[in-house]
Please model this.
Amino acid sequence: MEVVNALGRRKAAIARVYVKDGSGKILINKRELETYFPSTLLQYVVKQPLNKLGVAEQYDIVINLQGGGYKGQSEAARLGIARALVKINPEDKSALRSEGFMTRDPREVERKKPGRPKARKRFQFSKR
Model:
């Protein structure tokens, strides 16, 4: 099998995912998954599509992550992995979609407006 690539995004994070046959190693920015995401919860989030299909030990995954925070990066990686798995086997799409792994979360940070301290917050109103 040749390398299959996919893109995952979440908030400001972008994950470029490359999947090939292997033994289940996940490299993120040339580091192991456990060193890049020390939190077991974020490791679990990244592995969710693999665990759902039961193919965690079949593929080696290389991920290039840019931007965002650790939560956004982990969810971007999850989306990228799910999209790559669907490219490999299109029949898995319905199982991944039912868990919500195929949906790009569209929420982004709202821009700051001029004359205000934040996007929606206003300065304190003074009557006198």
About this structure: The longest strand covers residues 13-21. Residues 4-99 form a domain with the Ribosomal Protein S5; domain 2 fold (CATH 3.30.230.10). The CA atoms of residues 86 and 93 lie 6 Å apart.
